[in-house]
Design goal:
The chain is an alpha+beta fold. It has 5 helices and 4 strands, in the order ααααββββα. The strands form 2 sheets. It has a two-stranded antiparallel ribbon. Strands 3-4 form a two-stranded antiparallel ribbon. The longest helix is centred in the first third of the chain and has 16 residues.
Length: 113
């Protein structure tokens, strides 16, 4: 979709914002959805003013959440790649021709012909 195919309202938003981006698109869709759910039309300035003056709890469901913190990451030893000498996290080491190698060096594996 090129910019000529955007709705006129979205094109106006792009002009005001300065460029089209995913943030603008998400905000635009959120605003259109909210206006639809609230029964608002663009010309209803009084309703918009009333909405802006109302406490947030009247228009939104506000819930405090306490997410569970993830556990500590497991730490692995670093080994040296026997081809390039770079350090490699132990679970990422590959064996090629009896050597401990990093993934990039393991992908250069050939049959030697």
């Amino acid at each position: 979709m090129n910019s000529a195919e955007y709705s006129e309202d979205f094109q106006n938003s792009v002009q005001l914002h300065g460029h089209a981006c995913i943030g603008l698109a998400v905000g635009y869709v959120a605003a259109i959805t909210a206006m639809d759910r609230l029964g608002l039309e663009r010309a209803q300035e009084e309703k918009i003013d009333a909405f802006l003056a109302a406490p947030p709890e009247q228009s939104f469901s506000i819930t405090r959440v306490t997410p569970d913190a993830p556990g500590h990451a497991r730490l692995f030893s670093s080994l040296l790649c026997e081809v390039c000498g770079e350090q490699v996290m132990e679970p990422r080491v590959r064996l090629r021709e009896g050597k401990r190698v990093c993934i990039p060096c393991s992908e250069n594996y050939s049959r030697g012909w």
